[in-house]
Amino acid sequence: GTLRHVATLKLSSENDKFGGLSSLIITPDGSEILTVSDSGIFIAIPLSSAEEGSITAEVTPMKDTNGADIIYDSDDGDAEGLTIDGFYGGNGQGELYVSYEKNQRVTKYANGVSSQRGEDLGVSNLLKECPRKGGLEAILKLRLTDLLLMVCEEPNTSTDGIFTVPAWARDGASGAITAFSVQSKNKFFPTDMTELPNGDIMMLLRRFVPEDKGAMQIGYIPAECLQQAIESNGRVMPDIILELWERDGWKIDN
User: Fold this and answer.
1) Which DSSP string corresponds to 60-100?
2) Strand (E) or helix (H) holding 229
3) Are 111 and 94 in contact (CB under 8 A)?
4) What's the CA angle centered on 87, arms 83 and 90, to 5 degrees?
5) Where is the Phytase-like domain positioned along the sequence (predicted)?
6) d(CA 161, CA 128)
7) N or C: less crowded end of the chain, CB within 10 Å?
8) Beta-carbon neighbour count of residue 66 at 10 Å?
9) What is the pLDDT of residues 143-197, one digit of tens each?
């Protein structure tokens, strides 16, 4: 298929809690996005087709496993990934999963942003395999297989210019976890991903080298290739279908 640019949105706010958006999900009709901030909050943002205008976003603090609000801008609130079981219906609803980088863990919010407390999935010890400066980053709940994918931010090995990033798949029913790896080139590393209706995966990869500034790729992983890597504890490399560089005028946030 062919990628088509639909729209670019520039969001700004006078509220000092707005910013540092790490990951997002969107309603099927594109009317609302739900995003997480690396300061420990959910932000629900209704979208408008107007070229310029004011919208009202709803900010909700994340809860810890005891039901207390996670302290704003603390290590515990360093949220990096967001995914949902099924499709996002809006208003912060749905069974949400959030990955955290500094205090590495994955938390389930069974009732969306209104959950009274978070549920720790108990994968923190496993995530110690992520490199010290590249903790847990992208997560994705697969609709067709009920697996929860978890991918580190940076590689733990590199050979001949190919980087290998640790990853895991957690079975939703049994809780069993299988290790696999995601490979990439030219210092592009996974930062987010989503599932297409047929089960194939689209992956966002980022690159930041100070002398080159930022860059991004969109990669494509067929469902059968992903499943084979998981079943064999093997490796999968996305097919790159788009590459953009900040030095060429694109606005790319590291």
Assistant:
1) EE-B-TTSPBPPTTSGGG-EEEEEESS---STT-S-EEEEE
2) helix 223-231
3) no
4) 90
5) 17-230
6) 24
7) N
8) 7
9) 989 999 999 999 988 899 999 999 999 999 999 999 999 999 999 999 999 999 9
